[in-house]
Amino acid sequence: MISVENAESYFKNKIGKDSDDIRKVWERFKDSCKETVQGEEEKENLFQCGVYDFTGEELFHLDFVRQFTVYEEDKYSRMEQLHCEFLFKPTDELNMLETAERSMDFDDVDDFFNHIENLQEFKIPLTLKPIKLEIYQNEV
């Protein structure tokens, strides 16, 4: 069973060697968002993108996020986020794209995914080659 603690390694294994194919990674990300994770009380997904210099270099970040809210003994413990983040060299077109969308703003997760797939912020990067994919999990 998937747990919050092993979600990152589970997702990395699920992606496998298709890490340069954004569409395939997105499809696997969507599937994994529907899977039950032991220890997770609330499901939340995010889609965010924009040009940032988090790494010391300005890059376009296309980030699919699964957020885990964890309770221990019926008390809030922590929130963790699993990021599936593609990085690109900025272009004039990418410099104009920035958004942050949350699944909790939609009736169900499929409505959220359909909304994301119709955004220019999602469609435009699909036509480009990313520099790399970073998959990591952190506490927020």
Low-confidence stretches: none
- Backbone structural class: alpha+beta
Instruction: List the helices and strands in order.
Output: HHEEEHEHHE
Give the CA-based shape.
globular
What is the distance, rounded to the nearest whole angstrom, between the alpha carbons of the first and last residues?
23 Å
Count of distinct strands: 5
Largest sheet: 5 strands, antiparallel
Number of helical segments with 4 or more residues: 5
Percent helix: 25-40%
Q: Rg, please?
A: 15 Å
Q: What strand line-up does the widest sheet have?
A: 4-1-2-3-5
Provide the residue-averaged pLDDT: 91
Total separate domains: 1
Strand fraction equals 35-45%
Description of the structure:
With 140 residues, the chain is an alpha+beta fold. It has one domain. The chain contains 5 helices and 5 strands; from the N terminus they run H-H-E-E-E-H-E-H-H-E. A 5-stranded antiparallel beta sheet has the order 4-1-2-3-5. A hairpin with a 2-residue loop joins strand 2 (59-72) and strand 3. The longest helix is centred in the first third of the chain and has 12 residues, at 22-33. The radius of gyration is 15 Å and the shape is globular.
